[in-house]
C-alpha cells in the first residue's frame, strides 16, 4: 500500500546565515536542513523540535510554518515525501550533544554558499524552503490541526 513519508524540517536563520547539517548518504556528503521523519504518536511541531536537536544539537522553537512540500525523488519510483518546513527561534546550543548517525556536522552557511554547494543538496527541497522563507512565507502554527493532542500542547517539545 502506497503512502507518503511525512517529514519535518527547520529553516533557521541567524545573522544572514542558515543552520544546515552535513551528512553522509551512500558515501557522499550532502547538505540539508535539520530534518527527519514524523514518528508514531508525535505532532509535527514536536517532531521538528526533536529532529533539530538530534541532528544539530540546537534547541529550536518553531514559530511559523514556512510551507508544505511534496517531492518524489526521480531515482526512487513510488517514494514520496511530504515536508512540513518550520521557521523559528534558536534557544541555544547543547554542548557535547551526540548527533544522529550519519550527521557529520552542523554548519552555518550564507545564501551564496548554499547556492554554490547546490550539487551537495540532499534534495531540491533545501533551497525551496530557504527561498520561501526569504520571500516571507509564514503561516501560523494554528493552521495545523492535530486531533491527537489538545491545542495547548501543539508547540510543546
Automatic annotation (TrEMBL):
<feature type="domain" description="Nudix hydrolase">
    <location>
        <begin position="1"/>
        <end position="131"/>
    </location>
</feature>
<protein>
    <recommendedName>
        <fullName>Phosphatase NudJ</fullName>
        <ecNumber>3.6.1.-</ecNumber>
    </recommendedName>
</protein>
<dbReference type="Pfam" id="PF00293">
    <property type="entry name" value="NUDIX"/>
</dbReference>
<dbReference type="InterPro" id="IPR000086">
    <property type="entry name" value="NUDIX_hydrolase_dom"/>
</dbReference>
<dbReference type="InterPro" id="IPR033713">
    <property type="entry name" value="NudJ"/>
</dbReference>
<comment type="subunit">
    <text>Monomer.</text>
</comment>
<comment type="similarity">
    <text>Belongs to the Nudix hydrolase family. NudJ subfamily.</text>
</comment>
<keyword id="KW-0378">Hydrolase</keyword>
<dbReference type="InterPro" id="IPR015797">
    <property type="entry name" value="NUDIX_hydrolase-like_dom_sf"/>
</dbReference>
<dbReference type="GO" id="GO:0016787">
    <property type="term" value="F:hydrolase activity"/>
</dbReference>
<keyword id="KW-0460">Magnesium</keyword>
